[in-house]
Amino acid sequence: MYLRKLQKNDAILMLEWMHDSSVVESLHTDFSSKTIEDCEKFIEDSLLDVHNLHFAIADEFDVYQGTVSLKNIYNNSAEFAIVIRPEAMGHGIAHGAMKRIIDLGFESKKLENIYWCVSPENKRAIRFYDKHGYSKVSPSTLNIRGNYSKEVISNYIWYQITRATYYVGL
Question: What's the distance, CA 30 to chain centroid?
């Protein structure tokens, strides 16, 4: 497993997970309405975006397995996001990709803080983050950027990792 820039040919597998209810049912974005053109535009835009880093998670055959991102990079802080194709779940790919993007954020981007949120209904993701020792935090302690309603901010579970804590325990 490795990270690489997104490529136009990733769009079809990206659209596949977007239309899989088992993947998107507890995400706060309506991915089920996305089209192949939406995926291609996202990939194209990601190559020029300076406020967000989006990478393909690829297997040893260079096949797209998911997307991992640092979004809303601002003031030494960024939001983490990841989505994995169902076929890739349960193989350690998400954990490896998460560690790599966090390393990139702290080392190359000199971030001090990375945060993300999870729907309380997304039990699989919560188990994953808790199993790997990521800390839940109150959203009031974060400088949350992005398109979040007050309802999402107050109802979702928020996680954070800081540069100082990352290099101590994970």
Answer: 16
Is-contact 58 1, C-beta < 8 A? yes
Question: Which residues contact residue 104 at a Cβ distance below 8 angstroms, ignoring those fewer than 6 apart?
Answer: 3, 53, 70
**16-44 pLDDT per residue, tens:** 999 998 898 888 788 999 999 999 999 99
Pair type for strands 77-84 and 113-118: parallel
The closest alpha carbon to 69, from 5, 139, 20, belongs to: 5
Structure tokens of 87? 């076929």
Q: What mean pLDDT comes out for the span 90-103?
A: 94
The DSSP-derived string for 96-151 is HHHHHHHHHHHHTS--SEEEEEE-TT-HHHHHHHHHTTPEEE-GGGS---SS--HH
Distances (CA, A) of 117 to 8, 16, 36, 135: 28, 23, 26, 11
Which residues fall within 8 angstroms of residue 54, CB to CB, at 6 or more apart? 6, 42, 46, 67, 68, 69
pTM (predicted TM-score): 0.91
HSE toward the beta carbon, residue 150, CA cutoff 13 A: 0
Residue 96 · residue 1 · CB < 8 Å: yes
Class of domain 2-169: alpha beta
Three-state DSSP at 67 gives strand
